[in-house]
Design brief:
With 317 residues, the chain is of the alpha/beta class. Helices cover 41% and strands 18% of the residues. Strand 5, helix 4 and strand 6 form a beta-alpha-beta unit. The structure holds flavin-adenine dinucleotide.
Amino acid sequence: MKITEYIQQATKPLFSFEILPPLKGQSLNNLLEGIAPLMEFNPPFVDVTYHREEFIYKKHPNGLLEKVSTKKRPGTVGICAALMNRFHVDAVPHLLCGGFTKEETENALIDLNFIGVQNVLALRGDAPKMEGKFVPEVNGHNYACELVEQITRMNKGKYLHEETEIGFQTDFCVGVAGYPEKHFEAPSMKFDLKHLKAKVDAGAEYIVTQMFFDNSRFFEYVKKVREAGIDVPIIPGLKPITTLSQIVNLPSTFFLDFPDDLMDELEKCKDNAAVKEVGIPWAIQQSKELIAAGIPCIHYYTMSKADATYKIAKEVF
Ligand SMILES: Cc1cc2nc3c(=O)[nH]c(=O)nc-3n(C[C@H](O)[C@H](O)[C@H](O)COP(=O)(O)OP(=O)(O)OC[C@H]3O[C@@H](n4cnc5c(N)ncnc54)[C@H](O)[C@@H]3O)c2cc1C
């Protein structure tokens, strides 16, 4: 089923979450076993992130450096199939502009359609690590909006290089990313919202937000999104803080602020166990407030570790 249909038909707030493919060489079974307890809360859909190639430099005996392209977390499409088979949930693969030509995107969408995926989250992706700026592939997409357009064309049966013939019409429901604290490259929120609207005008049917820790930022964002003329569902993304390193890494990686009240508590923490004692109740309180405000669904960033999300869901859903 489509995410939009789940939302329309929901009689209570929906629980959903995101997982990462395991590192190359690790077992998928461990990941699936790990998230199995979360199925108690009936997630209608589970997102699977996509990780583009990274470049590493291999030193040869003659001293020359070879630039090698490697994917640390391959397997997004296979995991989607495994999730659907094992848990009978809808899997939502993330699809990137970065690293894909339009032909590769088309082929990926054909594969996804054939395995029964009905929803995709269309994203631009970031530059590979060690490369400062996002650069599309030759004959790839510059922005997520263009990727949404390609999916929308396939939903009308229009494939690349087949301009006159109408082929099989896919029926993907397309989600896109939104940023309550603004995307880091956007010079202003107004600019970011203009391009968010372009994604929706191109066919995106729902928005999932970047994580945030201050609900008032989310509520202000929803207001601005609506004022910009965007009326599709907005699914808030929440992440429980569970480690000392995340106190530094989350704000710098995702360009977001911790509210003062939260930071005051986190500053007192001496180890990961203490961080969890702050991070999990914080996410519970955020979730309860969002539900009280009538949001249709909450999406949890699990980083493939289910225990914190389980504790939250047990209190909230
Ligand atoms: C819910 C969620 C899931 C994610 N999952 C993944 C994942 O699985 N894998 C991964 O690698 N990354 C993922 N990301 C990160 C995402 O790829 C990055 O944040 C990326 O930098 C932007 O992607 P986007 O789709 O928002 O880009 P876009 O919507 O293309 O926007 C990128 C920037 O360009 C600006 N912009 C857009 N269109 C134009 C235009 N026409 N002209 C000028 N400026 C424009 C926007 O304002 C924004 O600043 C995820 C992010 C979120 C919020």
